Amino acid sequence: MLDARFVREHMELVVNALELRRYDTGILSDFMKIEDERRTLLLDVERYRQQRNELSEAISRLKREKADALLKTQEAKAVSDAIKVREERLRELDEQSQTSLLNIPNIPHESVPAGRDETDNPEVRKWGEPGQFAFEPLNHWDIAETLGIIDFERGAKIAGARFSLMKGYGAKLERALMNFMLDTNTAKGYQEVFPPILVNRESMTGTGQLPKFEMELFRIADPEFYLVPTAEVPVTNIHRNEILKEEELPVYYTAYTPCFRREAGSYGKDVRGLIRQHQFNKVELVKFVKPENSFEELEALTGDAEDLLRKLVLPYRVVALCTGDIGFSAAKTYDIEVWLPGQQRYREISSCSNFTDYQARRANIRFKREGKKGTEFVHTLNGSGLAIGRTVVAILENYQQMDGSVIVPEVLRQYMGIEVIR
C-alpha cells in the first residue's frame, strides 16, 4: 500500500501512475475526499482538546479557591462529549482511508516501459533456440494421453473442469521437478520452508490479493480461510508485524506449495491441458531486502529462475512487463516465457517482481538500521522458481520423440530413475 502522506504530497505523480496502468483515477478522488474530512476533523479535535485542558485548569483553580465550578464542569462535559463524537468519526474515516489506500496499486518504477497490454512488453533477452523436429510436434495433452501419464477426464470427474490427475511417470515428473527446483534453490542460499496453504484474511491483504482480487480466490467461509494462490502469500507473511535487524537482511526463502486459483475471467482460454488449472504445484522464491538493494536483487532473483530453465535446457525469453500489464502490487516485473513447440509460441512460466515497500507497508514488515533511530519498511520480492505444471508442459513438448516417447532432461534423471518416458 502507498503511504497516505506520499499520495497527498505527490498527487500528480500518483495520477500519472494510475493513467499509465490504465486505472480509473476516481479512486484517488475518493481517497482525497476522505482525507480532507479526516484532516479537518483532526484540527477540530485538537482545538477541542485544548479547550478541554483549559477548562480542566479553570475547574481546578476554582476548586482550590472554593468557588462554584458547576458551569465550568458542565461546559467541560459538553466539550468531552463533542470530542467523543468526533473521535468516533475519526476512527471511521481512518478505516475508510486505509480501505481506499488498499485499492490503489503500486507506482511503477521509472524503468518500467510504458504500454497498454502484454503486446507492448519488450523482450529483454532470449536463451536457447527452439528445437527443429522431423515431424509435426504435438501438444502436451496429446503426448500425455499417448503415454498414459495425465488423465484429464478422470481429473474432471473427480473435481470438475480445469483439474487433472497425474499418473505414473507424470506424477513422478512433478515430484522430480519439485525436488530439483528446491535442491537448486537451497544450494544458492534460499532457506526452504513449507508453509500453510490455508491462510487468513490478514495474510491475503498483506500481499495485495485482498480486497481487489477476492473473485480470483477460493474461500472457505466458516471459519474463514483462503486457499493460497501462490506461496508468495504465506511466505511473505512469515514476517508480518515484525521488525528485523539490519544484519538479518537479506532474507531468502524458497517454498513448494500447491496453488489454487479460480481463474475468473478466463472462460474459453486454455481449456485443454495444464496451462490454466484451478489447482497446480509451484516452487516460489521470496526475498526480504534493504531498499537500496531491491532492484539489484530483482535481477538476481530473475537470474535464479532462469538458471532452472537453463539446467533443464528449455529455450526461453525474458520480457519486461509494461505499465499496462504489470501486476497490482508490483513496481517492476520480468516474465520468463518458455518455448512450447506444440503451440509454436512462448508461454509464461515464471513472473519475478519487486514490490518495493508496497507489501511491507500493508503487512507491517520493517527493519532497524544499526545506530539509527526509528525503523524502515523492507522491500519484498518474489518469483516463480518455477511453475511445475507448466514446466511439465515444456518438457513434454520440447523433449518429445517421433515414436511418442519423451526424453527425460539430464538433470532430472537422478530423481526419475529413467532416461526416457515411454
Helix content range of the residues, please? 40-55%
CATH topology of the largest domain: BirA Bifunctional Protein, domain 2
**What is the level-2 CATH architecture name of the largest domain?**
2-Layer Sandwich
Overall residue-averaged pLDDT value = 96
What's the N-to-C terminus distance? 51 Å
Structural class: alpha+beta
Beta-strand content bin: 15-25%
With strands numbered from the N-terminus, the spatial order across the biggest sheet is 1-11-12-13-16-10-9-4
User: CATH superfamily membership of the largest domain, which one?
Assistant: Bira Bifunctional Protein, Domain 2
CATH hierarchy class name of the largest domain: Alpha Beta
**Total E-strand runs:** 18
Largest sheet features = 8 strands, mixed
Instruction: Give the tally of structural domains.
Output: 2
Radius of gyration: 27 Å
Low-confidence stretches: none
